[in-house]
Amino acid sequence: MTFSLDALDRRRFLRGTGVALALPWLECTAREALASDGNHPAKRNRLAFFYMPDGVPMPLAEDPAHKDWAWFPHGQGKDFRFTKCLDPLEPLRDHVTVLSGFSHTAARNIHGHCNADQFLTGAATGSAGTYHNSISLDQYYAQHVGDQTRFSSLVLSTDGGTGTPRGAHTLSFDRNGRAIPAEHRPKRIFDMLFVKSNADAARRLAIAQSALDDLLADANSFRKTLSPGDQHLLDEYLHSVRETEIKVEKAKQWVNIPLPKVKADALKLEVTPEEPRLFLQTMFDLIYLAFKTDSTRTVTYQLGRENGIGISDYLARAVGFHLTHQLSHETKQPGGWKNFGTYCRFLSEEFALFLTKLKETPDVGVNGSMLDNTLLLFGSASSAFHLSRNYPLILAGGKNMGFRHGQYLNYGPQKPQGGPWDGGPEPWSQKANKEDQPLSNLFVTMLQQLGVETDRFADSDDNLQAALVS
Which member of 181, 223, 319, 392 has the greatest number of CB atoms within 10 A? Predict the structure, then answer.
């Protein structure tokens, strides 16, 4: 006799699902950070990604706005000049590299509204039809270092959750390409990292382990009676259970070690994106604290969702504009490039403040500053209006991993596609005037310098060692 999944004891499955949902909360009742007991590893390489939606200003060279408000610098190599979009980074010039002429091969001809999903995966998520994604770069790295910290990774966004396929609110995807929900409430992030929820975590973990054991025993006894189709569905579910088992085992290692103690007096934990500058500063401060206490070594933060949906569209109010996304649509209007560039400058200011804090903080137990031991990528999977090519990218930090900076590396054409949208065919649907480099070549280089032995990621066909590494 063949059984359907509908015939299984749903109470047991619901119990298993409840455990899976509870475990991330239980993990936050774990140990004191390694930074306080002197047990530092020889290396503590960290990795962080920051994503801005909607592209960047790209007025054409003949446009008067090009001098001050084109996002990409003027010049090349070591001889370059930041425009007003990026000049807040000038004091950090020797710690950053601006990159152009990169994109993901599978994404070059999709609408810019669909881009965040594939920024760290390189997958062919497409503009429509069946949706498949793959593991994101942060989670790939977390597989190698995540067992060394309380949290394997910290997944953040301004909008929170997962969003929708091709409208992601998260940059992070697991090994099966499933979106990992992002947290967006500063108070909850802080509590997760630094506040012990209750003293009963060990008992809860024991209950969780017992429930998982029961669930797996039930599932294995049923599996041989199921049809091939139902076996596939069950295996999909059991994969989630196995992921939960890993989390349970990890939480058990940390449960009796106190959480790190941090000073939170200056943090405004109840802030929302309706106070955009303060919100961004608070999110950056939380990332800084997570790194400083060695609570995690891998972070993603998606500043906003593509297409102007969600509370992240309020971020432009920090510089006097109503909504963010419409700035990319209004560049034909008087002052349009300046308005869009002013918003990008705001993001550069906040990123520069964060880099400066890392630079000014000695990395306890290892050589150099926190910035020297942290590799950061800031950018977007859109450049000109809805154009999924020539990604605007800033690579920062990682000097102790061998990265050399103070340069602008342009792998694209000297006159890239740009200009305001004139109401005709959008740039994403037009033929490229030069083939971009695979962004995954940069990803491979980043992984290698972080200490991961690999020569492939997604669609990579080379690396950038010669250009970026001393």
Answer: 392
18, 161: one domain: no
Q: What is the CATH number of the domain that holds 382?
A: 3.40.720
Instruction: Verify that 368 and 414 share a domain, yes or no.
Output: yes
> Using one digit for the tens of pLDDT, what is the confidence trace for 355-383?
999 999 999 889 999 999 999 999 999 99
Contact (Cβ atoms closer than 8 angstroms) between residue 222 and residue 13: no
pLDDT tens digits along 36-55: 444 444 579 999 999 999 99
Q: Among residues 242, 47, 253, which one has the least CA distance to residue 147?
A: 253
The answer to whether residues 219 and 284 belong to one domain is no
* Four-residue CA torsion sign, 255, 258, 262, 264: positive
Same domain, 144 and 127: yes
